[in-house]
């Protein structure tokens, strides 16, 4: 087996929108396509499943071309070694949970009794022995999700695809199901691609994140590296960081014509600077001393954020600051008010924008 | 409540119910059992049930695929095809009968060829009755099934494909069960329409007792000779219709 079970370049033209996403997944690896709504994640998933033809590029699974427009190579959905967990599961309403799971093995030529035995085994694995005879509408959201997972895995697919697998669940069920799902994905020997707009799901379930925005990959890597070094505003917002791009010259990064941030890291050329909103301090007057970055800002908005207050500020750069309710009251923060913004150099993280 | 609405509403209801009440009042209840078991009545009833059932089977065989094509396949002229399918719905049945004669009659477009090649004659036969009924009743089935197919989420079919199901298996194992309620409702409506068919049948198949004389034809004939007999036959059709209405209501119309 090669180190990449799935090798794809997904190119789909849809009028003004063009998806172009290269994707390689090793056996046993779980890759999350993470991105905002409309980024093309679901289109990418449908292309992998053969539910949407590629305009260009290729999908190669286990060294077989499933879709390659250039050569006319095409394997229809029903002949691909895939399993799909749809966002709303799409369990067949007229079949019991057991027969839903047995449906795949039956279509793969397994005799009825054996298919049911396989299905029973899978339902056992997801902890639903007792619900085998229930119809989908008699299942809770979490149970339906597990039946959908069992149904997709029962055909032992080389490629498992999950579309927003936890989006339809309430917060509490989601937590339990996420842990459960992680266990099953880790056990899956084939490649797994999951699509989500929830960074928590992606970080909890995937070995590697591929961040897609506007049909393109904007960042790729494992969880820690993506969260530590965001490369787009979208990722920075996801992980809750202030992010700026500028030109570095030693310990200074010029992020706007009027503002050069002093950073702890030393680097040159195009660079990103990131820091947490909690690292931002607000003062009524210009603070004296200490190696701080300071500039004058205007309060644009004030919102509760957990136990703190998140303040959005305009100025040479837009910035989010988290302050305690007491500090917010003391500063009398209201939109339009002038305050001094301070960030310690040691609280910043700077890294090259290239490579 | 304005009287200007209530009074015509009451009159309208009366207008619909009174004739049915008349049928019940004038029914010869004492001689009903004998009348019902008269050979003529029984023959007509049996023939009606047989032909309506066969016509429904024919409609299912041809109409369900037609509904599927209309609901699932994009092709130029689809709207035109849909309009053509519904023509028998608005066409006076007697015109349908004449049209059938022109095509399947002994000297018709296809009838002559059928006769000379296979020795098959359709007009004025029981098969002719089935054809006439199917012609008139098929739109009911096609419309009901197409509606059900459109309402059904086609992504279930995609899910079936990802599990390895071919198009045909998907149709039989997923699509048909999904639209089963609509299909059943369509089939019952189709059967009811076929059972009551008069105009196309008498035009295309004639009125031969035991061969082409269905219940509605028998009622019409009896009206001229034996009023009580006509009432009894009408009662039977009324009971069947009401039965269908109740069945549809309880089983499909409320849950749909």
From TrEMBL, chain A:
InterPro entries per UniProt: AAA+_ATPase, ABC_SmlMolc_Importer, ABC_transporter-like_ATP-bd, ABC_transporter-like_CS, Mo/tungstate-bd_C_term_dom, Mop_domain, P-loop_NTPase, Transp-assoc_OB_typ1
4Fe-4S in keyword set: no
Start and end residues of each ABC transporter domain: 3-239
GO annotation terms (biological process): molybdate ion transport
Signal sequence residues: none
Keywords: ATP-binding, Molybdenum, Nucleotide-binding, Transport
Organism superkingdom: Bacteria
Span of domain Mop: 288-352
Annotated protein name in UniProt: Molybdate transport system ATP-binding protein
Organism: Micromonospora saelicesensis
Organism ancestry: Bacteria, Bacillati, Actinomycetota, Actinomycetes, Micromonosporales
TrEMBL record, chain B:
Residue stretches spanning the membrane: 50-71, 83-104, 124-149, 170-194, 230-248
Keyword presence, Transmembrane helix: yes
MF term (GO), any: molybdate ion transmembrane transporter activity
Pfam families, per the entry: BPD_transp_1 (PF00528)
Membrane topology, from the record: Multi-pass membrane protein
Location(s) in or outside the cell: Cell membrane
Keywords noted in UniProt: Cell membrane, Membrane, Molybdenum, Transmembrane, Transmembrane helix, Transport
The protein's name: Molybdenum transport system permease
Species this protein is from: Micromonospora noduli
